[in-house]
Amino acid sequence: MRLSSIINLAVAGISLAQSDQKPLGPQPKSNKRPNIIFILTDDQDLHMDSLKYTPFIQKHLIKEGTFFSRHYATTAVCCPSRVSLWTGKQAHNTNVTDVNPPYGGYPKFISQGFNDNFLPVWLQQVGVDTYYTGKLFNAHTVWNYHSPFVNGFNGSDFLLDPYTYSYLNSTYQRNHDEPVSHEGKHTVDVLASKAFGFLDEAVKHAADRPFFLGIAPVAPHSNVEAATLDGDLGDIGDIEKAVVFTPPVPAERHAHLFADEKVPRHPNFNPESPSGANWVRKLPRQSPENVEYNDHFFRQRIRTLQSVDELVDGLFSRLERYGLLDNTYVFYTTDNGYHIGHHRMQPGKECGYEEDIHLPLIVRGPGVEAGKVADIVTTHVDIAPTLLDLVGAPIRADFDGEAIPLGAEEIDAAAETRHEHVTVEYWGFAASEGKLWRKGESRLTLNNTYKALRIIGEEYNFYYSVWCNNEHELYDLKTDPYQLHNLLHPDEAAPTEILGVPFAKVVSRLDSLLFVLKSCKGQTCTRPWQALHPTGNVQNLKDALAQRFDHFYGEQQKRVSYDRCELGYILDAEGPQFETDGLVYRHGARWDEWV
Q: In the prediction, which pLDDT does 586 show?
């Protein structure tokens, strides 16, 4: 079932029994500012139709809220994506680019100074009570949770490594208490109890102060059993030996469901011919036994999501009984997407293809149109500005994103003015989370550093990327929605023209756009064409294709390239930078270096 079918099913309505439980207590008067509940799942896909299997999410969110159909992660892995989401900054500006030290994880978040400078701290500064339960960041562990404690929350109950992904042996750490193991209990059920408790606590003060409640279940991430390394996460070789990936584990009551479901057989699922670039293009086709196992992996994922679906239903039942439903925004998204068999890849993420970066984002709340599908481009770095805007907090000048319009009229107006691009970036390894099927096969692929962009307009829909080995990719998703034909690969036939102009003209514009975006800061990240054309006469790709700019883009600009592959953001490996090597277009045939 395609995404459009899921949305149509939800909008048509789903008959589900309403809870007739008694009210939980006195209903507080609505405060002037709204409350926010933010649900952040882990590794949830959009392109394998995971929302099809969650009837409560369809009932409460898709049918009654707005589905943002072009929402993207900017980094397709857990910790960098989450830090970008909670700070409003691209990963190249947070320098949290991995899940573990030295380039990422909770210790890197702390060393970069974000414990005093991220969303919950900003919310508290304007009088919002803040609560959070579930996974916050990778490498937030039973050894370092107090070094220091996470700032910014009135109440918190965090999942901790090395037990974050152990579905039946999770460890949570509440406020400043010591960690508590929940061996034998399903982690999402433990989380639901904590989330409902925080909601009960927040409601006590909701008449006077709005609240923010973050809920981050680990589902449908793989189950991971990690050896205890005495607090030292070790190097990559140690991690590969110490970490065992298996399919996610559903609650027992859901283990029998969806017995006949399989990964949707889209054209890029285990294709006969190789696709992609770099290491992806070298992958062998998966055997029937491999595909059968991966179908089981998929079924386990949608089974684990049933607990999340029940959690969503429980939240809405409580909001309704508390009388807060009309003054509460509920956001639902995930940190990154997921692939199983796409481009012949084993279960995992970390790539720039649609399966890994194109995500669900659903919002329900005051002024949000029910059943609407919004096709403006939105990203995770837009989330923090959006939430601050909702509670009347000032928007920070150093945000790399901009607030997402939520009302129908605002969304329609934004279609004419909003940015049409997404900055995608990644450093380090890609991990296979399924079985290893060949002797000597490694779970980790180290050469997975790249910069990319997605750009979507009325007349075009492109993905353009440059890998750290300087291999290039370009897909025209209008004609190739499954990204099977890399137009820049020598084995593929590139068109002579595209968008009515020579093919090379489009490539030069996309490369210059990426040249700006790969190191952009602040407003330049949302208005990159203005960095190239300060007079404001170019607002989008269509404008940039004007013939008078051919020499500027085709001959003058330097190209995106890498000097070498690195596992983290090391500036002298990243090739030319726009701030020092780029050019700005000026009228009168004059070319000035950007300084």
A: 78
